[in-house]
Structure formats: structure tokens, C-alpha cells
């Protein structure tokens, strides 16, 4: 991957942060903005060098530089993207017809062999992309424009899986080196031309795009983990679009520039079930009872969030009615009773600074847990420096803001990833046969009401273990300057800049 300085707003935002994030418009700010380019301040830097096989794929998707075979509509249904149609040949086999006239940014024409190679690279990755947790997938070209995808077990969700940004299709050049390189190898309306490590990236309009020509000449991206600096960049006109404005900063901004997006994202406390104090279900139950969800919503989120009743929030509209059933209540009734005494029980609590609210949540959790007798030691870092430890089970408890339908538009993939014995993002180190059976039942059902009911049964099975305490469902705040139009407000955090996005 090539690395050279990109034309970014990073230095301007750094200056704002160093100057105490002054609200005044600095010289060289909005008055000198390129009228044809969008300046974007993003929450987190890349974690894996912009590899599409990691969560960095969602950056590539939000920049409209890399594309998938299938898209999702507002209800989570599969719609055409690089594939125009698909059919299920048998329970384990799907055939897709690719769009004609698509070229990669390096000029290569899209063929079925390229799509098969991209899917094969994802399927063989270690660890695999989250969307392929528990799925054995194979892809091959039947002819120039026909792709066949097979799974080891029947999987009714294959089209939705193929919509995951972690399964984007890149040109053969992307796979030449030791890491997958998205620079100049996508198919979207914007070509990724330069990357600057964890500082930013530059994209240019791709005039050979198969669809509508982009209105913008390009995009200048800066990664700004500091929430106050992101808000200041919007307020002073240094950025056109700002991801995840902290709720504590939102009230200080012009409210015409602030847009709340209801997100399928849950702020969750994960408890380590494998070792340490929380290996005891009764101690986990004591922690669950100590958490005051309403207090966290009112104080940290200033009311801009919803108290969690389960893992799936209001953005998953069908979830709440299905909780009001005898079977759901019976599953929760089987939870362990809280330990009578936890006085002096020492626990480590981790979280990260990239989402400004999380350290504040950790402070309140520490107070609430210590009020019932726990002794809490916090560890708070940037996400890129704490993720590996969290996945390795280094903490007794970890606070995470987690998207629940991020990958496929269907919550089963998230539940499997986070709570199955073989899940790749299992922060709770949970391995419970009842949970695995519930997840397997849900995964085997076709999209529809039966699958939804089975998904809620799996949620109940997870909650019955007390491996996790869902606290609240977030409403991410997106900032957009007055000079920008056509920015997407996507609950799934897949789309942001589109061909119709423009500045004036």
C-alpha cells in the first residue's frame, strides 16, 4: 500500500485541539475550502491498514470506493449492486449474474473470476470476517459474468451476507502483497488514491464509474478520535461532515447542523465468563443488578439514547413486541440469583476513548459496582491499543458500543460473532451449549417472522447467562455543514458519501 501525505484537514483539526478547540474560524478555514471537495472528519483511524477483511471495510464503504455484490434496502432486504440478480439453485448453492460494464479503478474489467477471488480471500482469512463466522463459503466462476457461491450448510442468508462491506470485490492487484490493498483497486464512484496511516486518506472522483457520475471532485478524510476536536471542526467550518458528534458537544452546535440518526447500536457491558470473578454466574448477576441504565442515559447521554430492554434496540423495530412472550420471560427467569456478598471482589474494567461517552459510562459503572462491594480498576485507552487485549479476555469487564445489524442487516451474525463458542468477537469468552443451539436454530431459518422469533429466543438465551449487560441504545449524532447536501444518514453505518453528495 502506498503511503504519502494526503491533502487533508488533519493539521487544521490538530491545531484546533491544541488551541483548546477555539470556536473562532481560523485562517485557511471554510473560506478557503475547495468548492468541489468534501472534508470529512471520521471517528476512528484504521485498525488494519484499511484491509476490507477487518472493520476498516466500513470506511471503504462509507467513502463509496469499494462495493459489494449485493446491497440492502431500508428493511434489510437484498437489492442489486455489482450483481444484478441471483437465484438459489439448491439449499447450499446460489448463482449470481454480475453487472456488465463495471471496471475497477485500475482499468480492469470486472469478471466473475475476480469476484470469486475476493470472496475466497475473505473465506480463507484468519480470523475470517465477522460475517462469515460459522460459515464455510466457496465461490467460483461459471463463466465470465456468472458466479456460483456454495456453503457447507444450508444458509438462507447468503444474499444478505454478500452485502457486508467485509466482502467487497477488489481487483486482482489488491491481493498481490502480504496485505489486501484497497488503493486504486475498488469499483465505486470514488477512487482511493492516497493513505496517510492513521492520519487520513484522499479520494478522487472516478469518471469510469458504471453508475451515476459523482457530483464531488473528491473527498479529504481526517481521522479525529477526539470528540471535542470533531465538534470544533464542524463549528468553525473546517469540516463539512463529522462522524459521531459527542452528545456533550451537540448542544453547543448550531442545531441546523446536527442530525440524530437512530442506530442499531447498543452500549453493552461484557463480563468475562471464562476466568476471574465473573466466571461465577452469581457474581455476574450481582453486577447486572448494580447497573442503573436510566441514570447512565440521563447523565452521560443527556437523554439522547434509549434504555436497553435487550440486546436489540428500537432500530430493530420487530424485536420489542417479540419479547412480550412466556418463553422469553421463562428464559430470563432461569438466570442465576445475585451473589449475597461481593465485598472486596476486585475486577478490571476496560473501555476506549474513541467514543467520547464511553469513559464517562465507565466512571458511572465504577461507582455503581463499588456501591455494592466490588473494587474496580479501570483501563481506558484508544481502541486500536486495547482491542487485542479485550479479545484475549484480559479484562473482567469491558464496555463497548456495538452495532447489532452491522454486517448483514440481520442480527444473527452479530449474536453469533459475540456469543457463540466459535465467535470471533467473543469479549465475554462465552461458550454455552444452549446459546449455540439457539443461534444455530435462528441461522437455519429463512428471512421472515420465524427467523425473528428464533433470534429473540437466542437473545434470551444469551441474557440468561448474564455474560452481558445491555445498557442503552445509541442515537449517533452526525454533523453536516451548511454547504453540504446529499449526505446519507445510514443507521447501519455503511453509507455516508454518495454520488449525489455535493458542496456549494
UniProtKB/TrEMBL annotation:
Question: Which terms in the GO cellular component ontology are assigned?
Answer: ATP-binding cassette (ABC) transporter complex; periplasmic space
- Gene Ontology molecular function: peptide transmembrane transporter activity
Q: Where would I find the Solute-binding protein family domain in this sequence?
A: 79-424
Signal keyword on record: yes
Keywords of the record, alphabetical order, are: Signal
Keyword Signal, does the record have it? yes
Q: What is this protein called?
A: Peptide/nickel transport system substrate-binding protein
Show the taxonomic lineage. Answer: Bacteria, Bacillati, Actinomycetota, Actinomycetes, Propionibacteriales
Amino acid at each position: 500500500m502506498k503511503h504519502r501525505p494526503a491533502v487533508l484537514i488533519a493539521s487544521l483539526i490538530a491545531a484546533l485541539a491544541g488551541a483548546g478547540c477555539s470556536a473562532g474560524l481560523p485562517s485557511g478555514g471554510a473560506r478557503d475550502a475547495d468548492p468541489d471537495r468534501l472534508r470529512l472528519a471520521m471517528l476512528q483511524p484504521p485498525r488494519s491498514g484499511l484491509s476490507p477483511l477487518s472493520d476498516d471495510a466500513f470506511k471503504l464503504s462509507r467513502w463509496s470506493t469499494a462495493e459489494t455484490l449485493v446491497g440492502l434496502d431500508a428493511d434489510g432486504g437484498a437489492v442489486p449492486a455489482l450483481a444484478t440478480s441471483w437465484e438459489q439453485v439448491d439449499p447450499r448453492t446460489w448463482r449470481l449474474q454480475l453487472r456488465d460494464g463495471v471496471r475497477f479503478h485500475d482499468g480492469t474489467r470486472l469478471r466473475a473470476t475476480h469476484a470469486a477471488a475476493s470472496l475466497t480471500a475473505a473465506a480463507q482469512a484468519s480470523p475470517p470476517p465477522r460475517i462469515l463466522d460459522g460459515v464455510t463459503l466457496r465461490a467460483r466462476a461459471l463463466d465470465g459474468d456468472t458466479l456460483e457461491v456454495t456453503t457447507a450448510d444450508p444458509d438462507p442468508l447468503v444474499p444478505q451476507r454478500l452485502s457486508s462491506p467485509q466482502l467487497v470485490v477488489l481487483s486482482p492487484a489488491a491481493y498481490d502483497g502480504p496485505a489486501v490493498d484497497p488503493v486504486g483497486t475498488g469499483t465505486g464512484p470514488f477512487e482511493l488514491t492516497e493513505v496517510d496511516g492513521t492520519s487520513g486518506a484522499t479520494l478522487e472522483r472516478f469518471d469510469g464509474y458504471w453508475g451515476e457520475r459523482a457530483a464531488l471532485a473528491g473527498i479529504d478524510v481526517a481521522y479525529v478520535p477526539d470528540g471535542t476536536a470533531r465538534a470544533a471542526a464542524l463549528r468553525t467550518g473546517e469540516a463539512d461532515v463529522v462522524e459521531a458528534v459527542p452528545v456533550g458537544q451537540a448542544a453547543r452546535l448550531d442545531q441546523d447542523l446536527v442530525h440524530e440518526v437512530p442506530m442499531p447500536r447498543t452500549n453493552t457491558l461484557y463480563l468475562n465468563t471464562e476466568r476471574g470473578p465473573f466466571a461465577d454466574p452469581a457474581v455476574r448477576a450481582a453486577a447486572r443488578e448494580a447497573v442503573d441504565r436510566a441514570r447512565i442515559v440521563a447523565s452521560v447521554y443527556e437523554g439522547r439514547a434509549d434504555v436497553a430492554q435487550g440486546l436489540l434496540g428500537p432500530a430493530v423495530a420487530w424485536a420489542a413486541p417479540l419479547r412480550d412472550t412466556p418463553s422469553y420471560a421463562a428464559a430470563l427467569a432461569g438466570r442465576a440469583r445475585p451473589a449475597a456478598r461481593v465485598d472486596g471482589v476486585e475486577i478490571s474494567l476496560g473501555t476506549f476513548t474513541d467514543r467520547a461517552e464511553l469513559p464517562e459510562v465507565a466512571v458511572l459503572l465504577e461507582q455503581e459496582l463499588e456501591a455494592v462491594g466490588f473494587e474496580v480498576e479501570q483501563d481506558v485507552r484508544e481502541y486500536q491499543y486495547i482491542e487485542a487485549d479485550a479479545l484475549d479476555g484480559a479484562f473482567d469487564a469491558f464496555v463497548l458500543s456495538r452495532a447489532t445489524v452491522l454486517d448483514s442487516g440481520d442480527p444473527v451474525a452479530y449474536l453469533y460473532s459475540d456469543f457463540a463458542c466459535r465467535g470471533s468477537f467473543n469479549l465475554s469468552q462465552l461458550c454455552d451449549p444452549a446459546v449455540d443451539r439457539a443461534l444455530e436454530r435462528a441461522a437455519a431459518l429463512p428471512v421472515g417472522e420465524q427467523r425473528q422469533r428464533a433470534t429473540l429466543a437466542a437473545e434470551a438465551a444469551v441474557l440468561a447467562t448474564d455474560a452481558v449487560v445491555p445498557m442503552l441504545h445509541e442515537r449517533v449524532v452526525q454533523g453536516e455543514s451548511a454547504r453540504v447536501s446529499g449526505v446519507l444518514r445510514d443507521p447501519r453505518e455503511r453509507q455516508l458519501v454518495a454520488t449525489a453528495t455535493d458542496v456549494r
